[in-house]
Specification:
Trna Endonuclease, Chain: A, domain 1, 18% strand, rod-shaped
Length: 168
């Protein structure tokens, strides 16, 4: 009998099926490895992105502080250096000046950029780099509250002052 005439086709079929199952298992194993590797890489990238976001957030906060504190104080420093002389040339003899006095009471706070005293006269100076109508209204509202926050000056005559850098 020639070879192959005596073989059982069901055995051959089982071997083929088992071979295919082995290939599927190997494919599944390789896919599992790739998925795990992809997940690990994504986790690393997410962690790196989180670190970058935290660093950028810190830089943004630092920049914001620069503009709200140091940069905001630059115009005040420019004005404060000559404001006493400016008022003195206008007949207000300033004998005491307070820079940025701040009072907190009842959960509220008031800060004045510059407070100048001439005997019984008081000059309240708010320095703005840009003066908008809303800013002026806010300062006027603050001035209404001023005697409550600074009662020691309640009986003083109030002279209002608003200056921008470069004002002559």
């Amino acid at each position: 009998m020639p070879l192959g005439w005596n073989h059982d086709p069901s055995i051959e079929m089982e071997q083929a099926v088992e071979s295919i199952r082995t290939l599927f298992r190997e494919t599944d194993r390789r896919l599992d490895q790739r998925i795990a590797e992809t997940g690990r890489r994504l986790d690393e990238r997410f962690e790196a992105t989180e670190r970058e976001i935290k660093a950028l957030s810190a830089q943004t906060r630092a920049a914001e502080k620069l503009f709200t504190s140091q940069w905001g104080r630059l115009p005040e420093a420019l004005v404060e250096s000559g404001v006493v002389e400016l008022f003195q040339t206008r007949g207000i003899a300033v004998n005491r000046s307070l820079e940025r006095p701040r009072i907190r009471q009842g959960g509220e706070e008031m800060e004045i950029d510059l407070l100048l005293v001439d005997g019984d006269a008081l000059v309240v100076v708010e320095i703005k780099t840009t003066l908008r109508v809303d800013d002026a209204r806010a300062v006027l509202e603050d001035l209404k509250k001023f005697p409550n926050f600074f009662p020691e000056y309640r009986d003083y005559r109030l002279i209002r002052g608003g200056l921008r850098p470069g004002y002559q």
